[in-house]
Structure prediction request, 542 residues.
Amino acid sequence: MGSDDVVTTGPGQVPAQLPRSGRSPGRYRSAATAVWAIAFAAWIMARPLPYVDGLLFVLLGTSALLLTTVAFTGWRAAAFRTMPVWEAAARSAWTTGALGTVVFFESTLFGPSEGLAATATGLALSFLPALFGCVLAAVLLARMMRVAPGVHPSSDHERGAGVAWDLWLGRTFFVIVVAWPVLQARLSVAGPGIGDSVWMLHWPAVLVLLGVVGVLHLLGGTSLRRRAASAALAGAGTVTSLSGLVQALLGIGRADIAAVTAGMSFLVTTSFVTLLALALVTYPGDDRRAQAAEGAPLGARIAWVAFPLLTVALMAVTLLMILTPMTRRA
Amino acid sequence: MNDRSADRHSDVDALLRATLADDLPTAVEGRLNRQVDRFLASRRPRGRGPVAAWLGPWRAGLSLRVAASAALLVSGVALHLALGPRAFAAPVGRVQESVALWQAIKSARSMECGDSARDDLGSPAEFADRVHRRWVLLASRRDAAGALELTFRSPSDQAGYELVVDRESMLPRRIVKTPLHGFVPAGRATAGYSVVCTWGAQTPEERFDGQR
Prediction:
């Protein structure tokens, strides 16, 4: 049996370990960082092209999140022969797409105004990243079906340092990808201020989200944090987002634009922060547990699919609320 | 005697090695290793990492965590009610006012704004199309009488437009055009004007037919 051969096992049989990679992780890390930096530079150049823009956002974000799933030591094809890694990649693509919708929506709304038609088109185009993320996730899930079940990555203790490094590298790349469109939009406005970009978040909504997460943590205890962190965070995000939606709908009923925009800002901010926290904080823990042998728990899988879907739906509702005038009745 | 004893020991060693050979299948060995790892991890005391040690004084009991969660919730809701939608109000209001103006002009039956404005803006449909596609809303404010003052820039015309809009109908009562940067107009465009407009609004039936 050669060094790259994989032992596959059927259901009920003993899971096989994958062979270790003999290459230095530093080489992979340097090469991948260089490729990623070039792709990021290309993305910055391609920003005027709306269709390429969203696609590159999804590809760059997914590749960055992949680093939080698979360390560079595992990149020598070994890790990509396991189902949890493909599933995590698909989940990351879908989450990145949904987050891209929020980011592009905000950057259109807060960016330089080029007229009503351009703004409406920009808001509609902000849903392209979700579409690209969905397509990429479908492709990755289809590819996952070719992987033999029961194969798990090597429990290589030597990877420890590399995993921590790559986890933080992936997180940093992802934050750069998410922050750039927003900053770029703000910098394009006359008299820009970086502080204004930060104020695009509605900070009271972040406090409420943290409070709901704290309450859920109190109710669920340590086992919730260990086994259902993604589900709890997605649940807290759902509660706060829907409360923002209810406020906005009540504002429509009373023809009160201030209430509508308050609800919208609550909704958009909690969706954005929840997706970002899922990607950066809870997904790496889910992946560690999924790769340990048992696979991801059902609650985490539901959160992976449902919350990004809810976000895209809420952003569509927000788009309709923005483009439906209430000024006349106010 | 010693040689015989040594031979016997080496035979026993060989027999033991052969019987207890480390020939577990790789898969079984891996599974056992993972089980041992999980067992050791479950026995390890939790929350004793460097971050937990640094946070030692703040790792308080249940009551403090309840208080912190409640404080976050209450302060978030209170700030939300007190501050309002700071960030979103301006861009959303800008889009809403532009859409309302565009729809009101588009649905108007007729427009009387004087010759200069008619030459420049055309029919209500053309005017609405211009608002939709070419005009950029720069600022909006309410005047003393409660009317809405909207300031647009038209990059294609190199001109600025100031509209005083009726809050009920969202139709402009007064239009002021100002050329930008000494622009010399050509063709239909005029240098600048200030006109008062009257509008023929559609009946509800006409509006319904138009929407269909």
Remarks:
- Chain A is about 75% helix and 0% strand.
- Strands of chain A lie at 16-17, 151-152.
- Chain A touches chain B through 56 residues (CB under 8 Å).
- The radius of gyration of chain A is 21 Å.
